[in-house]
Amino acid sequence: MKTKMNQDVVVLCEGAVMIALAIVLSFIELELGVWGGSIGFAMIPIAIFALRRGAVWGIGVGFVFGTLKFFIGDGTVANWVSLLLDYSVAYGAVGLAGLFCKMENKNVAAIAGTAVGCLSRYLVSFISGVTVYAEYAEPTFAGISTPNAFIYSIVYNGAYMIPSTIIALVVVPVIFLALKRFKV
Fold first, then answer.
1. Going from the N-terminus, what domains does the chain have, and what CATH number goes with each?
2. 55, 59, 94, 113: which has the highest count of C-beta atoms within 10 A?
């Protein structure tokens, strides 16, 4: 019989494995060039873990991964607020996918959870763009007129978050449901 402490150890170990997997995947990215940001796969293991273990654990794993990504991945920040928003809190927000972990329909849970987690990261990145990076907003981004920091942040963050979200929406449900099928 598993005790609560044994179960917590299992969840911690699974979380550590997912953080390690996210770190490896964070090195496989499509850079957007001089603007920064990249299309990546690191949200996938965080969302899967959150869907399996819940939002609290998912947010924790995302937060730890985001912080490590900054230090291991040679991250760039304007100040400590951007470190928190662009890395720690942004990836922690992906853990909100775990809000759907108790849903009966696991197909819907996987899609809805992944969408909420990814959109939450986008929201945090958007907030960082209109607060921390507002002074760096350019009048155009990739040929699109961006007359203010609000529009600039929507376009800039959308340039990498939309493709990353689509990738996660395709991959997470497949892996999550396969893990359920094999009772892993």
1. 4-181 (1.10.1760.20)
2. 94
